[in-house]
Amino acid sequence: MTAVDERGMTRFFEEFEPPEGVKVELLRGEIVMMATPDLVHNRIVADVQDQIPRKHWERLQTTDVDILDEASEPVPDLLVLERGVAPGSGRLLPSQLITLVVEVVSKTSVDRDYGVKRSIYAAGKIPAYLIIDPIVAHCVLLSEPVGVGEIADYRAQRITKFGDPLPLEPLGLELDTSEFGTLTGVRRHHLP
Prior knowledge:
By secondary structure, the chain is α+β, with helices and mostly antiparallel strands. It has three helices and twelve strands, in the order αββαβββββαβββββ.
């Protein structure tokens, strides 16, 4: 897709009104729509949010992220930034203000969460990206973003099994994963 096409897609996306109960993201010029997530997913997001102290951190769900030089507006399941740095209003939050993004894997989001979103968040220089995977019962914490565009990636990776504590150095805390649920009846994948 050319740069002109991607800008046109971005303009279309800004005006698009999805049906109720549908999450919509723009990922490198492609509009992706997903159904409302599973209860396991929602409980994990709530559990993570509850463990991040509100006094120091703003914890936002379903907020569009603006990534410079990208035809992307991802909507992470949870994003965390220092309290007081976000603008007072608006639909897009600049990626350079974000400390951590969290995605909880579903049976239809595996490739996006481990692939294109990893590259997009790294291109946005978001310091930490946490993938919580209830299919294989582990968390992947990515840090140290490097590169630009589609070749951007994270240099460091830590995998933690559900039940083990997960150090979140960028937030100065340890995440308790012992109550994270798993998805049943979903075929296991082999990422990462």
